Each structure stands twice: as structure tokens, then as C-alpha cells.
## 1
Amino acid sequence: MVNWRVLGPLEIVHHGRHIDAGPPQRRAVLGILLLARGKPVSRGRITRLLWGDDPPASPTNSLRTHVSRLRQTFRENGLTADHARLLTVGDGYRLTTGDGSLDLVRFERLTCQAKDAPDRTALPLFESAFALWRGPMLPELSSDVFRENVLPRYEEVRLTAYENHVDARLRVGEHVGLVPELLEFTQEFPYRTRLRIQLMLSLYRCGRGAEALTVYRDTRGHFSAQLGLDAPAELRALESLILTESPSLTDVSHFVSMDLLRPTRPLAATRPVSHTWSVN
């Protein structure tokens, strides 16, 4: 069994043994091909993702060398065609690996299962999924093209899964432990409505209603000063519920299933998520 890991620095683990994939640029090429999940990636796209606006004098030759050395690494470490098949396809390359061997795929499967499971079943599934992340995704890929146009979509997937995890924890009464986590996340992602809702609710359930209202006022100020917008309707609705001390706020099964916690618009992270780029 080979484990291909992109949720952090790139790693290849074969029967518990780490395989050295070479210098950072070569690992970056491998990371790009892994993210394509078996689809061909053109040399031009790899060049843009790898070097951005500053490619070497002969990027095609550089890529051929990296691919050749990767194939050699696979052979020397006993990786057969069942483990990895790196093919030249047209003007690019395609890497196929065993089903479920990529940590990103396992993360998506676990979080999908958790979202549809009862809360007590979902919690360990979410925890197993987040344990797959070992740090920032693929630090070997440092080009602005990758960091600004590809990476945000994976950050969005991770954040949405985290928010689903928080919802499940709120439904089982874990609001006390959530407050410090959510304070940190809302600082990092100040315009993410759902996280603000979850923080306000957690604070209120801890008997800290005044602090929950302060979060609302701070959010309204951020949206006004930075975006020229009023606070989102979901937050305004929650403020009204807090001001009237609505019993629904402490009714776990009723409140978290309300549309208030199901935003009707895409929620932004710190940067807009681009849908115009992919790795393949």
C-alpha cells in the first residue's frame, strides 16, 4: 500500500517507509500531478503552477528531467504500475495511483460521510479527517499562481468541513470548548459569516450574551468599513434573537437546524476563491 500525501508537505509512504521524492521542485511537480487525480496536465499548466511568471529558460527540458527522475524513484522503491503510473500524454503528463491512496480523497470521503451521519457518529469521522492535515498544503508549490488561484479552493473545502464539524459539536452541547477555537478562526477569517454565527451562539450558550453582541457589532463594523456593506441578514437575525433572549438559542435540536445556520450565499474566506483555474 502506498500513501500519497498532499495535506501538508508532499510525502510518499510505502509500507510505512518514507520515500524521498527529491528536491522541492520535483516534489512540487508530483504534487501538481496528484492534485489532478488521474487527469492529464499540460506542460504549459505545470509550468505556470510551478514557476508562475518566472519560468526557467527551458521549462520543457526541466519538466522532462523531473518526470524522468520521478519514474526512476518509483522503480527504485518498488512502486509498480498498480501503485503509480506516470505517463506522457500529448503535451503533458498523467499520474494514476491506487484508489483511496491520496490523503485528500480520504479527507473528502470522511467529511462527506460525517456530514450525513448522526452527530455522535460524525464527530470521530470529522476528527479522523482533520488528523490527515499535517500543515499548510504543499509548501513546495510557492508560486503566486498556485497560492492565489488553486490553493484557496482547498482552503474552502477544509473550512466548510470545519464549520460542519462545529455544527455537530454545537448540537451535542460542546459550546464551551468551541469558544476559544472560534475566536481564533474568526480573527483569521473575519468576513466568514457562518463562523461568526457559530461564535455568537457558543458565547450565548456559555452565558456570555454581552460578548456575543460585541461580536455582532464588531462584525457589522468590519463589513461597513472594509466592504461598504451592512452585516449579513443571518447575523442580524441572530442579534434579534439574542436581544429578545429567544428560548430557541438554548434549544440545541431546534436552533442549529434553522436556516439561520444555513447561509444562502457562498461564504468568502480571507481571499475570493477562484473557479477559473484547475491543476488539469
## 2
Amino acid sequence: MDLPNVGVLSTAFADKSSVGLVVALLVAVAAALAHTRSLRARIARRTRELEQELAARRRVEKELEAVRADLETRVQERTRTLEARNAELTQLRLALETANQRLKRLVAVDALTGIANRRHFDRVLDRELRRARRESLPLSLVFLDLDEFKRYNDTYGHARGDDVLRLVAQTLDETFRRGGDLVARYGGEEFAVVLPGVDGRRASLYAERLRRRIWRLAVPYEASQVADRVTISGGVATVPPGLTATADHLLRAADKALYRAKCQGRNRIASGTVTIEEADRLAG
């Protein structure tokens, strides 16, 4: 650092005057002190400025921290709200799926017996006929009817009659358990079984097995003119591979076979096959 008035001091040394030297020293010291005071003032002023800047920065950082904390709180609240909403939507979706499944079941299932109803039977029969035609497979249909069931209801009451219908439906369901088989309540005391890929001989054997199982249930029916118990009659109809037939063709053939079983004394199974001639005749 250069001291002020150095030239004066140098001149005093040159003149070798003690008074001048003292004066020069005093001037130099005074100048140095003045410069020091100025420097200290500048340092103090700069220090205050830095302290003010630091304080301002701390205030800004504090404000930013408050903003960040507030934002984080809002994000957490929003996240909780969204999670709660998502859980609510999940519950609603599950409830809707459950309701849809129940609705589908109500549409497809007979309320009394718990097996397929007529509407579902019609859809499945149409679908299996198309598949049998496409894959050149046989398709059999079994029509079943409880013998003299009106008299049973008149004798024992409709509540007992409903119990019998449920029991028969359960036996049907336990008898025909292949993956593609469908047992249905066709209406009243009539039941139907769709047997994809099953020819007439096997379908008749399955129907006879069912008839015997109903017989072994030994549900008392003293007023029956057929036997001392509840019995069934059945008609089996089959569409052979390669034959184009409609659901109406198969239903009529099975109904005719059921009628023959009734005429032959009931409590038996009769069978038939949809032929090309019969299909053409029914179509005409």
C-alpha cells in the first residue's frame, strides 16, 4: 500500500532537518490514519452490505422453504385425495362387475332351479349348431318331461312340486358334467340337455342313465298312474355330421321322440335322428 505524501518525507530526509522530519512523519502518519479510517469505513460498509445480502438471501431461502413445505403438503394432500378417489373408483368398479355378473346370471339362470333358463338354452343351441356344422360334428338334444306332473302339484301342492323340480335339476346337473354340456329348464316341468359332439347312441345312453337316477331317487307319488314314484320321460334327437339343420329341426325331432316315449307308457327314453328329408320337409 502506498502512503500519501511520501514526497514530503523524502524531501525532509534530503534536507536533513529534524523538524522537517518530524513534521513529515506526522503528516505521513496522519495520512495513513486517514487512509486506514477510510479503508475501515469501506470495509464496514461492505460488511454491512454483505450482511444485508446474506440476511436477504436467508429471508428468500426461508420463504422458498415455506413455499416448498406448503407445496409438499399440498402434494401429499392431493395424493391422499387421489388415492382415496382411486380406492373409491376401484370399489365402484368391483361393485359394478359384481352387479354385471349377477345380472348376467339373472338373465341366463332359471330362478327356481338354478340351472340355465330358456333364453340361455336358445343361445347355446344356436351356437352349438353352427359349431357342429362348421366342424362336421354330431349334436344331440335331450328333451325331458316329468310324468303327470300337473297331477303331482294338484295332489301335493306347488311347494312340494317346486322341491321336485329343484331335485330333478340338481340330478340333471350332476349327470351331465362334460365341459360343453348344457342342462336347462325349458319351461314348466320340461328340461332340455344340449350334448355337443355326442351321437344318438351315446345320447340315448346318457338319457337312460338320468332316467334311472330319477327312479332311484324314489320320490313318492301315490297318485301316479305310471309308478309309485316320480318318473321322467325323454326324447333324444341328433343332427348327424354334415347335415345342415336349424334349432327348430332339432327341437321338433326331440319333441316327437318325447311324444313317442309318452305314448309308449312313459318312464322311458325314445330317440330319433334329424334326416335330410325331414329337414327339407320342416323347412318347407
## 3
Amino acid sequence: MITFGKKALTGITLALGLLSYGSAYAAAGGSIADIKARGVLTVGTEAAYEPYEFIRNDKIVGYGEDILQYMVKKLGVKLNQLNQPFQGLLPGVLARKFDFVATSVGITQERAKKVAFTEPVGEVRSMLVVKKDNAAIKDAADITGRIVGTQMGSLAQPAIEDYNKALKKEGKSGYADLKLYQSYPDVSVALLNGTIQVAVLPSNVLVLEMKQKPDAYRVIGQVGERRLLAWVTNPKDKEVRSFINDTLNEMQANGTLANLQKKWFGETMDLPTKDYLPKGAL
């Protein structure tokens, strides 16, 4: 059984609305020349994925935001950044509501058949977390019969669903329910208030949560493999994707990208620049 939180249902409604009315808002997308002619770069972001992109003092900040500011300066245009629920971002870029999605989206085979991924900007692992004082759940196998929660449409959702299928193949009953939320902060709140018993959180979010609340969480395992994160463009806007990739390579070569990774993560990342897309990707 899968149930949706109230905010998740709002995200579904937004995504459907973008698909229905996208053509009425098709004011973005195209070529780099189009963006420069407009004098504005319009991007879609979900600023709820610290430290990649998040809100601090009413402003969007983070690793991805610093990369974006580098690109805006390079283009010589103004930035129009639309902070929206994750569930509306991919439909939005396909509907040309944005020039591209400047938020960290997991590269999957299903997504790569619909949208065009840039070179990776980061990586993530899906971690199983319980409240620190929950002694009954000791490891990943103990999610059997428990209420689990994660963000709707995230990499963590298929990871926990696949793990649940594996449990059932072993003759176990699997989780009692999977609740889906609009954002990871909502998942953390649900865990701490007892709405769910196990949360599936991305490793980067979890590290920060545990620093801020050292006595709140306990990690019981990981589901799935390491996933690469990238930005997203409309498949028709090949020049926009090339601009992003070229700029990422430039930032890697001049040391800017490594400095930003140290600033936000405390270490550099070993990210591929080729052979990172799944078979059949656009």
C-alpha cells in the first residue's frame, strides 16, 4: 500500500497542471542566443535539498546555486529562479516553463528517456533512518511491518520499493505502508513526530540533519546503489545542455568546482564526464 501526504497530493496537482497548461507559459527554452536576447535566464529549482540548494535567510543558497551564479555571470543576463515542488520540475522543463532545471536530479533510465541530463554535478545514497531512541528497529530487514516514508518522485522511492520487493521474495511481509511526501524536510518531520517509523533520506540531507539534531536520528542501513545527480534540460535545447556541460568542465579545469565542493561538502567528488547516461538516454 502507498499513501500520499497532503503536500504530496498538491505536488501531483501542480505537475498535472504544468502538463495541461505548459504551452500557455512557454516563455523559456531555446538557444543561448534566445536567453541572451531575453536578458534573463529562467530556471526551475526545488530549494529543499541541502547543501545542493536550500533556503537561508529567505534566499536560495547552496552548491548548485553557486554553480548557477557562475553561469549567469558568464552569460551576462539576469536570473529568474522559480522555486517549485520537485514533482513539477521535469514537466515544467518539457513545457518550456524554464530554460533548464537547476536542481540536483537523480539520473535514472526512465527519466533519461524523457528529459536531457547534463554531466553529473553530485552523487547521493539512499539511507534508512529511525529515531535514535527506537531500539526495536535495528537494521534494514526490520522495516517489515513498519510505516516507511520518503519523498514522492525521488530516487529514494524506487530504492525502497525495490528493497521491499526483495524482502517479499524472501518470504517476509515487507513494510506496512509507504507514505510519500512533497519534500525531504516533510519526511524528517514525519519521522520525528511519529507519523512514520522509518525514513528514507538522501545521504547529503541526512549528514546535515544529524549535525543539526545529533540526538534525533540513527542510521540502520542503505537501500540501492550510489546515484549520480545532474541538472536537466529540454531534449530539444541541445545548445543549452552543451553550455552547461562546457561550463562545468571549465569550472573543473580552473578549480572552481573543487573549491565549491570543499565549501559545501568538506571534500571533493569524483564525478564522471562520460559514460554516465543509461542505455537509451536522450
